[in-house]
Specification:
mainly alpha; two-stranded antiparallel sheet; 6 helices; 61% helix; elongated
């Protein structure tokens, strides 16, 4: 490609430095304040837990906002199968949904397998009660 002149270099480097400073300013503006991350996390979890009731009680506009929040790429209608389809789900909601599914699965297993519920408690034996055993 060859060498460039000093004027071309200075003009180009000036332009690139101005773009770099502009990008750095945008990054500073987009910086998240992590000092209250626990508070924000709790607020998000509380909101996500109330999504179904917000959907049921919400107006048309509220339902649209929830739909756009949960499915950012939208909801599609499949003519062949006559059903709704979604391509993507909000990543945060997807993680919460996965955690809930695992929790429900573990909870269901624990309630159906009674040996897992209380392994430390021994079974009561069938013996005749004595005066000291009536406590």
């Amino acid at each position: 490609m060859g060498e460039i002149t000093k004027d071309v270099y200075e003009t180009t480097i000036e332009h690139l430095n101005s773009e770099l400073s502009s990008i750095n300013e945008e990054l500073e503006d987009a910086k998240i304040d992590l000092s209250n991350i626990e508070k924000h996390t709790e607020e998000v979890l509380t909101f996500v837990c109330k999504l179904s009731s917000c959907w049921e009680e919400g107006s048309y506009q509220t339902r649209q906002k929830i739909q756009n929040l949960v499915f950012p790429t939208g909801v599609l209608w499949d003519k062949e199968n006559k059903c709704y389809r979604t391509q993507d789900m909000n990543e945060a909601i997807k993680v919460i949904n996965d955690i809930s599914a695992v929790y429900n699965e573990v909870k269901e297993e624990a309630t159906t397998d009674f040996t897992l519920l209380s392994p430390q408690v021994g079974m009561r034996r069938l013996e005749r009660p004595t005066p000291t055993s009536r406590t």
